[in-house]
C-alpha cells in the first residue's frame, strides 16, 4: 500500500507536527459520535425508555381516538418526550469523559515534543500513512517508557493543569526556559549539557525494560479503516520493533524487542480486531502489576486492557498475513 513513511525519519516539520495533533485529537470526537448512540440503544436503556414512555402516555391519556384519525400517533409523543432527557443526559455525562481523555493524551510528553521523544531510542518510531497527500493513519512505537505512564501537563477540564513538575523531566527531557532538551540515562545527546538523573528524581524510580516496546498510538481515519491501513501500520511497527524488516531509509534496530504491548483504547472497542489479527493476546495480570491500570469509562463501563505479542508469535502470524492480501 502507498504512502507509509517514518515521520521522525524524514523530519517532523511544524505543519506535520500540528496536523498529527489535530488528527489524533479529532479521532476522539469521531469516537464520541459513534459510541454515544451505543448508550441509548442498549437493551436496558430501551426497556427503561419504553416503560417510562408508556407511563407518560397512560398518565396524560395519550391514546388513539377513533373519531380523530391523527390521534393514532399520539402514543409516540411519550417516546419523543422521554427521549429528550435520555439523549441530553448521555451527552452531559459523556462529554467530560471524552474531554479528559483528549486533554490527557494531548498533554503527554510524547505529544508535546513528539519528534524529540520518539528519537530517544532506536526502537521508538512514528509512522504515518499518507494517501493522496493526506495523513490517513498514525502509529507511534515507544521503546523508552514501555509499560509506564507518561503523565500529562493538562488537567481533565479546560483551564486545569495536570502535573506541573517532573512530567517532561521524568521521560528524559530537561526544561530550560522556553526550550525542552532531551537527556537519556544521564548521557549527553545532540551536544546538550550533561545531566545526571538520580534514582527517584522527578518521581521516576522504575527502569524501563529494554526488551519491551509499547505502541502508544494507533489511529486510522474512519473512512479508510476497512482498506487495511491499520494492518499496514501495525505490521510495519512490529517489523521495526522486532528488527525483522525496515522501511527504505531506516537504519533498523540493533537491539530488537522481545515483546510488544499496547493498552487498548476503551473508547474504541472495535480496535482490538486488528490487534488480534496480528497475534496480540491479553497480558496476564501478574505481568502488568506495575503498569498503568485500565479504568472503566462511560455509562456502559467501557474499559481497555493490556495486550501483547512476542517475537515468535508475530513471526507465525506474519507468515499468515503475507500469505494473503492485507485487509
Word description of this protein:
- This protein is an alpha+beta fold and about 325 residues long.
- The chain has two domains: about 5-25 and about 110-150 and about 205-320, Gcn5-related N-acetyltransferase (GNAT) (Aminopeptidase); about 35-100.
- The protein has helices at about 15-40, 45-60, 75-105, 110, 115, 230-240, 270-275, 310-320; strands at about 5, 125-130, 135-140, 175, 180, 210-220, 260-265, 280, 295, 300-305, 305-310.
- Helix 1 (about 15-40) packs antiparallel against helix 3 and helix 2 (about 45-60) runs antiparallel to helix 3.
- The longest helix is centred in the N-terminal third of the chain and has 32 residues, at about 75-105.
- It starts with a strand and ends in a 5-residue tail after the last helix.
- Mean pLDDT is about 75; it is low at about 5-10 and about 180-205.
Please describe the topology of this protein:
Layout: E1 4-6, H1 14-40, H2 43-60, H3 75-106, H4 109-112, H5 114-117, E2 125-131, E3 134-142, E4 173-176, E5 179-182, E6 212-220, H6 229-242, E7 259-263, H7 272-277, E8 281-282, E9 296-297, E10 302-303, E11 306-310, H8 311-322
Parallel strand pairs: 6-7
Antiparallel strand pairs: 1-2, 2-3, 3-6, 4-5, 7-11, 8-11, 9-10
